Amino acid sequence: MNANDLATQHCSPRKGKEHALDATQVAELLQQLPGWRLRDDGMAIIKDFKFADFHHTLGFINAVGFMANHEDHHPDLEAGYGHCQLLWSTHDVGGLSLNDFICAARVEALLAH
Ligand SMILES: C[C@H](O)[C@H](O)[C@H]1CNC2=NC(N)=NC(=O)C2=N1
Question: Record's family (predicted)?
Fold first, then answer.
C-alpha cells in the first residue's frame, strides 16, 4: 500500500495483539513514508518536522490535532520554537497497528502542496 492509499483510509478501533503489525509489514509500510523512522524498540514510528517559527509549528500541531481527534488516534508530540517531533504507536495493541501508518500518511498529506 502506498502513501496515497494509506492517506485515504480512516483509522478503525484496533484493540488487542492480533492488530499488531509484524516486522515485515512495518518495514514495507515505512518505505512509503519518507523521513519516518522506527523507534529503537520497534514499537513506534517517529518523524522530526522543521518550521520557520513558532506560528508555523503551532499551526502544524493544530492541524495534526484536528486530524487526530477526527480519527480518534493520537500522537505523542514534542515541540519547540521551530520544530515538532511526532510519534505514533497504538497503545491498544502495545505496538504498531495500521492506524499509525494511516495517521503518518495523513500528516504527510496535510503538508503536501
Ligand atoms: C477509546 C479510544 O478510541 C482509544 O483509547 C484510542 C484513542 N486514541 C489512541 N491513540 C493512540 N495513539 N493509540 C491508541 O490505542 C488510542 N486509542
Answer: Belongs to the pterin-4-alpha-carbinolamine dehydratase family.
3-class DSSP state of 2: coil
pTM higher than the cut 0.95: yes
From 19, 92, 99, give the residue whose CB has the most ligand 1 atoms within 8 Å, as the site to mutate: 92
Looking at the domain 3-8+17-111, which fold is it? Gyrase A; domain 2 (3.30.1360)
Nearest ligand 1 atom to the CA of 88 is 12
Confidence of residue 1 (pLDDT cuts 50, 70, 90): confident
- Domain ranges for the chain, please list them: 3-8+17-111
Please, which residues have CB within 8 angstroms of residue 30's CB and are 6 or more apart in sequence? 36, 37, 38, 45
